[in-house]
Amino acid sequence: MNLEKYKNHLIQNTKKVLTNWFEPKENEGIPQRDVYRFLHSIKGTAGTIQLGGLMQVSDRLLLDLDENSHKVWELDELRNFLFDLMELTYEYENFKHITIKTSTIRPSNAPLIQIIDDDVSMLILLKDMLEEKGWMVITNTDPEKAVNQYFEMQPDLLILDIHLPMKDGFHVLEDIQTHNEKYFIPKMIISIQNDKQTRIKAYQSGADDFIGKPIDIEEFIVKIERHIQRKKMFDQSVLIDELTQIYNRRFLEETLPRYFQEYKRSKQAFSISVVDIDYFKQVNDTYGHLFGDRVLNEFAQFIKRSIRSSDLIFRYGGEEFVIIFPGTKNIDAQQRLTELIHEFSQKVFIYKEKSFTVTFSAGLYTVDDEFVTPEEAFKYADHALYEAKRLGRARVETSGRSLFYKKNVLNVSVIDDDIIIRTMLYKIIESIDMGHLELNIAVFENGPLFFESGRADDGRDHFLIVDGVMPIMDGLEVLQKVKSGPYANQFSVLMLTGRKSKENIAQALKLGADDYVTKPFSVPELQARIERLLKREK
């Protein structure tokens, strides 16, 4: 019996029903009896053809339904109810090709564990088991992609199998060792090859731990807990950023309240600036993460050398920094930051005989009110940074307290012909807390419907997520149209692409895409990318 044929049929039939329910604009609701029969059919078929996950999800949903009820589901309510089923359907459909799998959006502060193993069944088992402990897990079978993912996401723990396609685990460790000299990230080797010589080689290559396969789960969990604890203790004990050698975010959180206490005593105003390197992702994409680290380090040292000895600079995270100017009011701090932006823009970086320059933007807030809290002051400065980015970058914008209460609206549009992907993306974006920035979210099944809606021409800042390959209007055509229109500077674009060639990705970036994600994607990885890009819009 060819189960694969029947599995594909069930997946496609499930998508067909969902499309018929949610696509028609005139559809006013779905009777509960239809929902019940739909789930009941999936449960029976999935169990027969060994799709246990779909069977369990549909069975759980059926417990909340009464077949004889006369309820009519509103479409938004039904989308939320069926979200787990839709997400699992997407994962099953892409099972053969997917490299990163996850089903739960973890809190952004949860420990992040990266697992690299070419055994997909092992990845699924370990992911499910570790996420039950409350950790966020990213997984990969491709060592090249995994190394890039490691650089971008900087996990709290790396778990790595020795036997990988194209490149073994020892070579992967060598690739990241230079980076690991700057960041303390515990590394654990797992392998079916458990002899003394292999273990010694693992430790010599930079591994902090080794565990043989088959894995003793109890021992494995205890070791992971210990490494996560070590990482947490290390982070809490260090006040200097490992890469840039300036103060880190933890020290900022300890230091900032003291300035507010001093202000209440002396009434001497001071200023806070949030600064961010412009288009830093393009530096990483073009020249690599290690050279990007060099740019970050040289930027931090430039600011440190250029400010007064009484001023303080902190690395807040990624390419974002915070500067405190004691005894300095708005105008003086703005003037100094403007000078620094100009001076840094003259610095030439050289990579393999190619030269380029980098700029940064700054948001500024002066504390001259004893009722303002540190959290509020930071948000005011962050809001001003958003204004600087919106108005063209490489500039300073200042914020008054009233600006914080003005609700800024950012349009977020999703264009994808797959209803399951559209639904998942809507849920991801809806779950992101942007503070004072309101997200106006809309989804479209093709490009023409998006342009007919008028959203592209309303003049607001716009974050666009678009599928690269669609039957009616290609994603690159959508990108080209918005980037050649009158509001091109208002758009930030994330391209979802199944095209893995460098030429297609290069074309998307050339047309103005700010980032791209190759399908199939994982929910946490995509959420992290969306959050990063959205926060650049603040």
From TrEMBL:
Keywords: Phosphoprotein. This is Diguanylate cyclase (GGDEF)-like protein. Pfam families: GGDEF, Response_reg. PROSITE patterns: GGDEF (PS50887), RESPONSE_REGULATORY (PS50110). Residues 268-401 form the GGDEF domain. InterPro entries: CheY-like_superfamily, Diguanylate_Cyclase, GGDEF_dom, Nucleotide_cyclase, Rev_trsase/Diguanyl_cyclase, Sig_transdc_resp-reg_receiver. The modification 4-aspartylphosphate is found at D161, D467. The keyword GTP-binding does not apply. Residues 112-228, 411-534 form the Response regulatory domain. The keyword Phosphoprotein applies.
